[in-house]
């Protein structure tokens, strides 16, 4: 008998222009004064304006907070929560990429009038106590899946990140509207799309909490992302490709929210922390080499994933697994992302430091199909230098 628990966002809407009906969901949740949590990129492109107009036309008060930055540090989270608390909001809307949606989750907790818990005590798994405000998530990139995950990542020091994992962080509603992603630059499309593919792969191969429901989602996500990624990169105004990328990223998010990610993410975090590379790009850099490292223990799972992409493929598990790796490598090449650390101003002298910091990600490494040592991590960084 297979035993598992599966948790996700209760209301999902995947439809062009669905963000223009955000007010209906706010009213159903009892919101009267909402804070829209976003960044300068979103407000600079005026992506928020139609949503704000919809909310105000429906009689809701709206506060727009656009001070979120990539890899948000604790100070940003605390300042955002204080702003929302002072404004007296009773609901939160995350609008943007993973950073904005992660901060929106934490604002929903920290700005609740009865919340007494401090941010510093929330890190780890299921350490959150107390209530949160109603929360709606609207992604503007197809990658992180943060709209359906119970995870928020915060930069806790100069170069370190920590995760808060709690079912309290699952939103009430996620709205997937590809019109908010049309024209996203190719490099961002590529990095976020590869990030979503990593989520699907690592959820399927997680040795901890792997389950049939997450497997189904991961397989469907990978198939969809594999089919539409290159079109979305090179034809950025294609609504069909964009909507499928959003859906694929969401499905992958649901999968890894319940069967967590592993060594690819563990090795990616130090690259973002030390050199401010985007999370998706960091994942893309280490993806292929981590999969090669995992082959002795994970080939059967990689073979199953490749069979999803090519049902008529023949060969051994190892041969199919290698074909999966080759296919992903081709996606990376076609995505035109720099794939060598030396191209990204990462000094060779820092590789040992990166390997040491990767080993701090025990929450992630425990899920990897094959145990990974600091020397193994160093070898992977060296291979992509």
Report on the structure:
The longest helix is centred in the C-terminal third of the chain and has 31 residues, at 279-309. The protein folds into 2 domains: 11-180, 3-Layer(aba) Sandwich (Rossmann fold), CATH 3.40.50.1970; 186-383, Dehydroquinate synthase-like, alpha domain, CATH 1.20.1090. It is 50% helix and 11% strand. It has 14 helices and 9 strands. It is of the alpha/beta class and 385 residues long. The strands form 2 sheets. The chain has a 6-stranded parallel beta sheet, sandwiched between helices. The termini are far apart. Helix 9 packs antiparallel against helix 10 (279-309) and helix 10 crosses helix 11.
* C-alpha Rg (nearest Å): 20 Å
Q: CATH topology of the largest domain, what is it called? A: Dehydroquinate synthase-like, alpha domain
Q: Give the DSSP E fraction (strand runs of 2 or more residues).
A: 5-15%
Taken from the alpha-carbon principal axes, the silhouette is: globular
Percent helix among the residues?
Answer: 40-55%
Counted up, domains total 2
CATH architecture of the largest domain: Up-down Bundle
CATH superfamily of the largest domain: Dehydroquinate synthase-like - alpha domain
What's the average pLDDT? 97
Number of distinct helices: 14
State the strand order across the main sheet: 1-9-6-4-2-3
Low-confidence stretches: none
What class, by secondary structure content?
alpha/beta
Distance between the termini: 45 Å
CATH class label of the largest domain:
Mainly Alpha
Order of helices and strands: EHEHHEHEHEEEEEHHHHHHHHH
Biggest sheet architecture: 6 strands, parallel
